[in-house]
C-alpha cells in the first residue's frame, strides 16, 4: 500500500509542478491555488508512505516520478525541446528509480 501512496504522491507532484508553471510566478490565482493544494496533498502522501518505506527510497522515487512526469509534460504540453541529452538524462533517472525499487525488496 505504501508504494501506491508514494506513486500517487509523485503524480500529485507532477500536477503541482505544472500548475506552478501556469501560475506565472504565483500571479494567477487558480493555478496558484491548485499548486498549493496539490503540494500539500503530495507532501502528506509522501509522509504517509515514509511511515513504511525507507527515507532514501521514498524520497528518491517521489522526486523521480515528479521529475520524469514534469519532463514529459514539458515536452508534450509545453513544447519544450526533446534533445538526445535530455532523453539520456530521463533514461538515467528512470533507471535509478527501478534500481531503488529493486533495492528495497
UniProtKB/TrEMBL annotation:
Keywords from the UniProt entry = Cell membrane, Membrane, Transmembrane, Transmembrane helix, Transport
Location relative to the cell: Cell membrane
> Which biological process terms from the Gene Ontology are attached to this UniProt entry?
xenobiotic detoxification by transmembrane export across the plasma membrane
List the transmembrane segments.
33-50, 57-78, 84-102
Top-rank taxon: Bacteria
Tell me what topology the record assigns in the membrane: Multi-pass membrane protein
The answer, when asked if Mitochondrion is one of the entry's keywords, is: no
- Assigned GO CC terms: plasma membrane
Record keyword Membrane present: yes
Listed GO MF terms: transmembrane transporter activity
- First-listed, main subcellular location of the protein, grouped into a coarse class: membrane
Question: What does the similarity note say?
Answer: Belongs to the drug/metabolite transporter (DMT) superfamily. Small multidrug resistance (SMR) (TC 2.A.7.1) family. Gdx/SugE subfamily.
Question: This protein is called what?
Answer: Guanidinium exporter
Amino acid at each position: 500500500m505504501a508504494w501506491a501512496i508514494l506513486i500517487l504522491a509523485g503524480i500529485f507532484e507532477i500536477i503541482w509542478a505544472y500548475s506552478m508553471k501556469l501560475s506565472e510566478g504565483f500571479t494567477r490565482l487558480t493555478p496558484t491555488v491548485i499548486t498549493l493544494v496539490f503540494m500539500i496533498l503530495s507532501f502528506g502522501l509522501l509522509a504517509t508512505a515514509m511511515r513504511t518505506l525507507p527515507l532514501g527510497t521514498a524520497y528518491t522515487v517521489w522526486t523521480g516520478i515528479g521529475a520524469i512526469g514534469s519532463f514529459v509534460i514539458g515536452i508534450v504540453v509545453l513544447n519544450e525541446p526533446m534533445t538526445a541529452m535530455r532523453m539520456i538524462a530521463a533514461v538515467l533517472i528512470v533507471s535509478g528509480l527501478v534500481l531503488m525499487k529493486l533495492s528495497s525488496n
